[in-house]
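Structure tokens please, single chain.
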Amino acid sequence: MQTLFSTEGLHPRDSFRLWQDALIGFGAKVDHTRLDDGPFAAKLEVARVGSLDLTRVTQGAVRNETTSDLMRRQDRDAGVAVIFNLAGTSSTLQDGRDAVVGAGDLVLLDQRPAVHTSSAGSRSLLLEVPRERLASALGSTQLYTALTVGAELASTSLALTFVQELIRVGPQLTPDAASRMGSVAVDLVVASIAERLAREVPRPLHGTVVVQRAKAYVEAHLGDTTLDPPQLAAAVGVSLRRLQELFHERGQHISDWIWQRRLEAATRRLADPGCAHLPIGTLAFGCGFASQAHFSRRFKERHGLAPSAYRHGALLGAPAGSDEA
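Here you go.
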């Protein structure tokens, strides 16, 4: 990673002030307050892999607050900050939730008022993730900001390991490979949050949250060919009838949503050069389809052409034909 700023070699009296100035210079719209009187050390490192921006921050005990006034000057098109805590502890407050995270945990902050507090010697890794990528799979970010996604989840550990390795090998990747690997990193983050939401203990909740948890469960179990509405209702702790009512209130059907997500996942993989070696049947099974024939029929109903034709056109960057899968 490229070092943009470090307090190393600075006089201790000036280090925090210069750190604040540096962050402002890099566009951070945050109020910074020190939480102790000891020597302050900080470091800011950045990397870019494909379209994925990554930032590693090492700093002392600090309280960072984003206020409504600062938000009015913020770039509203900026992505969502996914924060892996690498060392120390931190707490995050946003949307009425207060998360405490330790080493290896993940937490998410959107472009809204928030408070983030770090302990002395803390180190974190930030990814800027497109908001629409999260929202399309998990619903509004207000449902899972400041929610601790723990390191005990295998998906969280896998996501962090992948991102750290991606930083290491990033300079060796071709632009196309870097773009694909950056997309994989985002998919792993989405899977981690989905697993965390799906594991939440069921309790009486507002209908919107129930639906979003159901959708998160679908996202985390997309490759399960046995996933159906009854199984989904049991997983989120409501009756099938109630879950059907909640989906119908939003103009959706449970089965349609499951098949929609499977088709979207399969469509992305058909267009991904990294999946070009996979037989279409194998790809379809990995997205939850029980057979290639079933997949081909549903795919053609949605896209108007066979999966093989779509893949051929997508990989060549040209309009696809309509030959059979």
